[in-house]
Amino acid sequence: MNSKKLAAEHAVQFIKSGMIVGLGTGSTAHFAIHAIGARVQAGLTIQAIATSEQSEALARELEIPIVSFQEVNEIDLTIDGADEVDSDLNVIKGGGGALLREKIVASASRELIIIVDESKVVSQLGAFPLPIEVVPFGIEMTMKKLAALLECPLTVRQSGNKPFVTDNEHYIVDCHTGSIADAGKLTRELNMIPGVVENGLFIGMAAKVIVGYMDGAVRELNHT
Ligand SMILES: O=C(CO)[C@H](O)[C@H](O)COP(=O)(O)O
């Protein structure tokens, strides 16, 4: 059994008719969107807001009703993947390049459920390169400021032989930070740099993490 699919299908059970649901991005979220589509076909009535053009296109294909932020005040529940999760349920996201919309949707949500396979659970965040979304204008200067703060190798994410461009027409800088001692402080410092739009640290945002295991087990991690 695919452990990402296991976590995704477990999470989708928390959706109830009438909810506004945030749809995540990535391969684990892809399984969740399919499971939501199946429940919609079976009579679940929800409306959804997607965190990327890709997830929105999939949702439309599966006939999941899509709404915009103009039409809702709040999102009831968002289900999204992650690149790393620690025991305090802090998370690194953005491996798929959708971190800005993911953070906007997560912060508009009453509840954020993160779905991962067991390989994503870590004791300290930072082995996965931290994605930072930056505006292309002045990126050389923004990267100098990032380098001064982080003191670690930085790379502009590529797609083919060009910079990867996000749904918001920005670039992603991947920062090989190594272990992050104080993720809360770092997220605030990063977002103070002009040119940085958002970073992939989601601190204190997840209410629950659902982990799928290779042996078929599923475990819920909650705040203690
Ligand atoms: O943050 C993300 C996209 O920006 C993804 O949720 C994250 O990269 C995990 O992806 P996957 O489920 O494919 O492992």
TrEMBL record:
It is an enzyme of class 5 (isomerase). GO terms for molecular function: ribose-5-phosphate isomerase activity. Keywords: Isomerase. GO terms for biological process: D-ribose metabolic process; pentose-phosphate shunt, non-oxidative branch. It holds the Pfam family Rib_5-P_isom_A. Catalyzes the reversible conversion of ribose-5-phosphate to ribulose 5-phosphate. HAMAP family: Rib_5P_isom_A. This is Ribose-5-phosphate isomerase A.
